[in-house]
Amino acid sequence: MATTFQYRHSFFGLAPSYKPILHEEIFTLIYHSHGGFNWSDVYSMPIWLRKFYIKSLVEVKKAENKNQSDSNSNNNKKIQKPSFVRKNK
Predict the structure, then answer these.
(1) Is the Cβ–Cβ distance between 50 and 21 less than 8 Å?
(2) Which helix (H) or strand (E) holds 61?
(3) Mean of the pLDDT values across residues 9-36?
(4) Which of 14, 24, 63, 85 has a 20 to 30 Å separation from 33 between CA atoms?
(5) Where does the pLDDT of residue 34 fall: very low under 50, low under 70, confident under 90, or very high at 90 and above?
C-alpha cells in the first residue's frame, strides 16, 4: 500500500494572497514603462530588481507630476497682451 502525504502548503509556488500583488506589479511595470518590459521578463525578474524598477518608476512619475503642476501654476498668471505699434500711412 502506497502512502501519500498531503501537505497543506506546497514548498514551491506562490501563496494565494501574494498572487494579486505580483500581478499588480507586473501590470504596473509593463503598462507604465510603455513597452520597456514584457510579461515573462517581469515575472521571472528577481524580487529585489522588480522592486527597484517599481521604486524608480514611482520617482519618475512623481517628478513628472511635480513638473506638470509647476507648469500649470506658472500658466495661471495673467497673460499680458502684446503691444502693437500702428503705422500711419
Answers:
(1) no
(2) helix 47-75
(3) 83
(4) 14
(5) confident
Cell triple for residue 36? 520597456
C-alpha cell at 12: 514551491
By three-state DSSP, how is residue 37 classified? coil
From residue 79, alpha-carbon distances to 11, 14, 74, 76, 82 in Å are: 66, 58, 10, 8, 9
CB 25 within 8 A of CB 54: yes
Which triple of cell numbers denotes residue 58?
514611482
> In Å, what is the CA distance from 60 to each residue of 1, 15, 29, 87?
61, 31, 13, 51
Q: Which residue in this structure is represented by grid cell 507604465?
A: 32
Give the cell for residue 20: 494579486
